[in-house]
Amino acid sequence: WLAYETKSLLIGESADASVVASLKSITLAHEEVEHVIEVLTMHLGPDDVLVNLSVDFRDGIQADQVERVIAEIDQEFKEFLIEYRDRPPKQRPIPQWILDLPDWCW
How far apart are CA 33 and CA 30, in angstroms? Predict the structure, then answer.
């Protein structure tokens, strides 16, 4: 059972779809962002999530504006992910094949 529960962390499970949607919403709340191309996430451990974000900024904004928006998004992601991390973990059902293992396996 422990192997089943930790396997997803060992292979770099992505964050829940609701988390990805929240990260996308945080990004799109900035008027300088035209659209989010891709949000990739990977759990690095039980308390760490790596986020790779591809964004298209609106035409005509200056480099210093882009830097400011990136810094703001970074801070907002950190605040959101701290809240996400502090939520109680969802309980996953134990797969039937694990429950069907013979007693000597336990």
Answer: 6
Q: DSSP character for 100?
A: T
Integer CA distances (angstroms), 39 to 5, 9, 27, 86, 87, in order: 24, 19, 10, 22, 21
Q: For the segment 10-54, what is each residue's pLDDT rounded down to a tens digit?
A: 667 788 888 899 999 999 999 999 999 999 998 877 677 889 999
Amino acid making up residue 24: K
Q: How far is Cα 44 from Cα 52, in angstroms, rounded to an integer?
A: 13
Q: What CA–CA distance (Å, rounded) separates 79 from 43?
A: 17
